[in-house]
Design brief:
six-stranded mixed beta sheet, alpha+beta, 23 helices, Rossmann fold
Amino acid sequence: MFLKRIEIKGFKSFADRLHIDFNPGITTVVGPNGSGKSNISDSIRWVLGEQSARSLRGARMEDVIFSGSDTRRGLNIAEVTLVLDNEGGGLPYEYSEISVTRRLYRSGESEYLLNRTKCRRKDIIDLFMDSGMGKESFSIIGQGRVEEVLNSRPEERRAMFEEASGVLKYKQRKQEAERKFESTEANLHRVKDILHELNEQMEPLQIQASAAKDYLEKREELESLESALLVHEIEELHSEWKTAQQEEKMEKENNDRWKQKKEETEAAARKARRLEALLARFHQQVQSGYVKAARNLEKREGDRNLSNEQGKHAAEKLEAEKKALEEDETKLSGVANAYREQRDRYEKENEALNSAMNSLQAVQKQLRSYQEMNGKELEEEKSEYIDRLNEQASIGNETRYVTDQKSSLERRMNALKEDNQSFLEERRSSGQIVEKRKKEEESLLQQTENARADAEAARSEEERLEEKLKEQEDKLYKAYRYVDEKKSKIRMLEEMQEEYSGYYQGAKEILKAREQKLAGIIGSVAELIDVPAAYVEAMETALGASLQHIVTRTEKDAREAIAFLRRHQKGRATLLPSETVRPRRADRASYDKARSFSGFIGTAGELVQVRPGYEHIRDQLLGHIFVVDQLETANRLAAACSYKLRIVTLEGDVVNPGGSMSGGKTQNQKGTLLEKQRELRELKDNLSDIEKKTADWEKTVEQTKQAAKKQKETAGEKQQKALEYSSQLEEKKEMRRKSEQEHDRLDSRLGMFDREYESLEEEKERLEERLQVLEGSRKRVEKTLSELKSSIDKLEQEYSKRDKEEASLREQETDEKVRTAALRENVSAQQKEKERLHREKEELEQAVAERKERAVSWEEHLNNDRSGHDWDQLVKEASNAKAEIERLQERINDQKARTARDAEQIEATASVQNDRYQESRERLHETTVRMNRLDVALENKITYLQSEYELSFERAKQKHTLAVSAEQARNEVHLLQLGIEELGTVNLGAIDECERVTERHRFLNSQQEDLMEARESLQNVIDEMDAEVTERFAATYHAIRAEFQHVFVKLFGGGEADLVLTEPENLLHTGVDISARPPGKKKQHLSLLSGGEKALTAIALLFAIIKVKPAPFCVLDEVEAALDEANLVRFAKYLRSFSETTQFIVISHRKATMEEADVLYGITMEESGVSKMVSVRLEEADELLEV
């Protein structure tokens, strides 16, 4: 890996865009002082993430932007890009070339880009961490770095060794672990404090919870007993209801029975009337049937006459068919005889035909034998002639074949040209595909980088949520502590109230004894009134000791209280019997006068609330006291009222009757009774809000936890997505490589086309030569054919005589053929006649069969006519039907009369049954009313059970059983109700509160254990980081020490040097000191060397560090400026040997350094304030430096 180039625009004096290409080896940048050559090293340091403007030789970061000159305006942006060759994979990035860009705008905005994709500065720092190229690494060494080596204290010089050993990330992890350790320790202390507060809360809460449980037990016993009693009463009512239900059922059955009888009788009456009507309609139908029967009789007689006529016709048809059948059978016999005679004649003619054909074949055989004996010589000549014709045809075929081959070859050549053109197009298309693949790869590369950026953003968001969760948990712990403090305060004030703190002894003893020993004690005045916060001080002054006065129901109660104090010697107290105390109010005239005063607020009694029923107590104590805003108002009002009233100000000053005044302020008034009550009330009012907010905070913390968990999943998904994009990118690369291979294949194929075309041209030339040879052979064969044709003509003349004899045989052959043809014609005619007779015979056989079938059909028809209907019987049946209908008419008339009589009797019975039915309905109604009353009583009991105890009857019956009598149960219920009343107000919430506090106590105990485990884990991490730092620092120190000793000797040409640890036993904090002995001198401390010796020693140490922690490239910015010529030459020679493994960019104005350079660049400032690069040769370098 090495630095390929740097691009600068708008950075310091480089106003125009500057490109500097670097190669492995030594590149030297030269230029006169003030030309801006050191700005190149500053630009490299800046793009690697430098944040200190002072390190870049500026006052603020905006100073790196070109600010303008006499001839140019300033720019608004500075931009520097480093391009690194990463072929060797020196950086954890999958690209062979990496560009890092940093931009700064004059508005203060800045941005970093990695391969032209926006990223964070942290990404750049992480990319170069431990690569030897960080902003704090030794890849950039200037005079300041040399001075740092020389002037640093040993402890400060240690940082260089830590950077070289790569322990900074471990120290950062240790610092992070220490921060978390401190945070965990603080949280642990907070949890312990909260646990302490909870421990103090748990005891009183447990007491309240115990009282609440006692109440619930009594309440449960009451519920069980009263529910069982209710179940008993409900069951009694239900039993009575069941009896009534049985009565109702019986009455209803009786009612239904009478109703059914009534309805059945009424139905029978209706049925009788319907039957009467039905008989009338049936009589009409029977009359109609009588008419139809008469008509049917007439029809049957007509059908009998018609059937007789049809029978005669069928007999005649049958006789005719029998006669025709006899005729057809006679005709069929004659045709069959003719057919047999014709068949015999056909067989005789066929035998004569076969004999004639045999004679013809004998003549033809004799004729062929004659031809074979007389034509051999001629046939030989003709055979030769045919052979030559075949040869001529063969030559012609080959000529056509060669011609076709030539044409095919030409077509192949043309097709090859077309294919070549097609492949050219395909190669062009393939080239486009390659370009497309490259663009897709670049696009996917962008998507991959974006996905990585998204993954990093998601990870940052995850870290942010984790930090937010930590902050919220800290706030939640603080809220817990605040709630606990408030509860502790409330508990303290409640305990003070329970102990009656601040009360005189007498009042305190009476209040404590009111529950057990004294009856009729209502409470103190302070307990009965409620004072707004604005009037607390005024009421404290107005009431004074009266706040501790004890209110009783009667004078007797007051006397018993006083006797109690006297008997037990518990002090004294003032008591206010409610039945005897009378209100005391200011006179109307004074009140009206006071209302006219500005600053008058009202009477003290008007400004406070009191427990209902004790308003007269309030007015007795406060009704005559006026309250005003300030003392001056009180003085004016007292004078106006002749100093006969007591007037109190809001600040507690008093003007007494008679004109005396009292006032002032004590240091602490928060201990007063009213102030305590006000504070307790406000704390309780605020506590629920605080607890609600705490609960909201708990939900918020849980939501943040879920969000952090979800974000962690999202970060994982985005990381997975980035990996998928990387995988897709590799696939795209593979596709691009395959496309490039296809493109190369097409190039190879085009070369093959060229070679094949050349081969086809050679083949075409060979075929043209073959065509010439074939043309010569064709001419030779044509000549031979002409000669053979003449010979054949001559032989044919010689054999013409023989043809006459052959003609005679042919005439005989013709005669035989004629006779044979005549016989064949005769045989054919006989065959046709035989076939005709055969067809006629078959047709007659078919006709006979059909006549037989028709005869059978007519015979069956005649038999059916005779046996199918007995017409005399049918006529007789019709006559009988008519007589039967007449008898039916008589029976119907009798039935109609009987039905009318029955209907009248049934209707009379129905009237009697209806009266019985009405009586039953009235009795059923009375029973239903009684059941409704029982229903209401049951409903009330069940409703009470549900509303009071939220129990259904079935559930109560399952749950509670009455084990005693109902009367005893009622007495026990009454006693339980009294016991619950005696418990007074019970804090049922104490049970849940106790459980909540207990659960919270358990939760915080668990948190405490988790925090202790986390603390131990973090301590282990810190110890592991210390061990790692110690090990790495020691290894790096010894490696640098050995290299330093070696490099020192190389640079000085002798002598010796060493590195010394200031605290060898403490490798975590030890400093590093330097001792050196140049040649010819004794060993001494670095500070005692000359300036040049110190500089060369520092350079030796820096080179030793680079040896141990190699950097891909190293920028040396005038580090050799202080060296003399002899040391400079050794420095340059060593730099040359070192450049074999490290790329050097040297900014210098020393000639010895320039002489060792592989490439020289010059920086000039031809235009004032604007640096420019020029290429120089070594011999021009001195001139450039003098400019």
